[in-house]
Amino acid sequence: MDWIRGNTVGRGSSATVSVATSCRSGNIFAAKSVEFFESEMLQREQKLLSTLNSPQIVQYIGDSITMEDNKLMYNLMMEYAPAGTLYDAIRNQRGRLEESVIGQYTYQIVQGLEYLHSSGVVHCDIKGQNILITESGAKIADFGCAKWSDPDASASMPIAGTPMFMAPEVARGEEQGSAADIWALGCTIIEMATGMSPWPNVNSDPLSVLYKIAYSGELPNIPVFLSTEAKDFLSKCLQKDPKSRWTAKQLINHSFVEEFNLSQRQNQKSFTSSPTSILDHRAWTSTEESETMDDIFETKSASLAHRIGGLWLNSRAPNWKWEETWITIRENVEGVKQDNNVGGR
Ligand SMILES: Nc1ncnc2c1ncn2[C@@H]1O[C@H](COP(=O)(O)OP(=O)(O)OP(=O)(O)O)[C@@H](O)[C@H]1O
């Protein structure tokens, strides 16, 4: 092992993330690790992340297999973000970021999404917990749910993501394309502005969340205290019809983020720095009667929500805290696999 594992800096539903130091260079990086026998998803994430290269995407460094405490581990190495996630930043600011900061992060996330979507990748799990804050701003991370947008490649790809941040067409199990990332971006802006979920008054079980999003016809509330530009930007992200949602390419020129777009262009003109090392860049109310549920979930598309909800109910974790962390769910081709994302952050 030519690197030393340091402290654990994060724990997701699928993996543990530690800070690590290279023995040769002394450089610091992050290692996302799982036991090799259950590393299929992390290896899939590695394959996808290794094809990406953008200032607004967490920088891929490499992968390795290590033997630690008699356990064979698979590690995905990437740049380390000492400041943690956007979710941490929101909590540090007592749940509400200033609008100028929201604008800046939003611009950087849109840049990352524009890069991803133009590269044929859909992230599928945009939320504050999956955005890292680095010296060069917000970077999109955690490609555990990501997929290629090519219909042939994604035909067998199941719906994945975090119910509270899911777009209506995703909650109905119809499609999960790039427009779904834009809806999730809108939800993340609400998270930045309020420190709360986009559906704060909805019963917090995923089944209720999914039903509300899929069939109520309602939209998340746009915070009243935001500027007209910010509200307009949000309304472009939170269109029920995915075809009516603005694309990342359109949003990048929206007046809400215009000043960050302009200042970046100016910076690009004045600096011509060459890159050094990659490490230098561093669910409606409470659950209804089951007859009603069966009526509601009769359709093919809704059966997805039913399966997800059932699984969640069956595997509820004792230390679950919905308010503090948003669940990520993944369905594999053979069936549904539900991951409890229970704190540790
Ligand atoms: N590069 C990094 N630098 C610093 N902290 C990180 C980094 N990557 C991840 N983390 C921390 O580890 C946590 C878990 O990482 P990640 O979201 O990638 O794991 P996961 O198991 O895929 O999570 P999820 O349950 O969202 O699928 C993050 O929320 C964050 O706090």
What does this structure look like?
Its EC number is 2.7.11.25. This is mitogen-activated protein kinase kinase kinase. Its main location: nucleus. InterPro entries: Kinase-like_dom_sf (IPR011009), Plant_MAPKKK (IPR052751), Prot_kinase_dom (IPR000719), Protein_kinase_ATP_BS (IPR017441), Ser/Thr_kinase_AS (IPR008271). The chain has 345 residues and is α+β, with helices and mostly antiparallel strands. The chain has helices at residues 40-49, 86-92, 99-118, 151-154, 168-171, 178-194, 206-215, 228-237, 248-251, 258-270, 290-296, 300-314; strands spanning 3-11, 16-22, 28-35, 60-68, 71-78, 121-122, 131-134, 137-140, 147-148, 160-161, 329-332, 335-338. Helix 3 (99-118) packs antiparallel against helix 6 (178-194), helix 6 (178-194) packs antiparallel against helix 8 (228-237) and helix 7 (206-215) packs antiparallel against helix 12 (300-314). Mean pLDDT is 80; it is low at 271-326 and 330-345. Bound molecules: adenosine-5'-triphosphate. Residues 9-10, 12-15, 17, 30, 32, 58, 78-81, 84-85, 129-130, 132, 141-142, 144, 328, 339, 341, 345 line the site of adenosine-5'-triphosphate.
Question: How are the elements arranged and paired?
Answer:
Elements: E1 3-11, E2 16-22, E3 28-35, H1 40-49, E4 60-68, E5 71-78, H2 86-92, H3 99-118, E6 121-122, E7 131-134, E8 137-140, E9 147-148, H4 151-154, E10 160-161, H5 168-171, H6 178-194, H7 206-215, H8 228-237, H9 248-251, H10 258-270, H11 290-296, H12 300-314, E11 329-332, E12 335-338
Antiparallel strand pairs: 1-2, 2-3, 3-5, 4-5, 6-9, 7-8, 10-11, 11-12
Bound molecules: adenosine-5'-triphosphate.
The site of adenosine-5'-triphosphate has 26 residues, from β1 and β3.
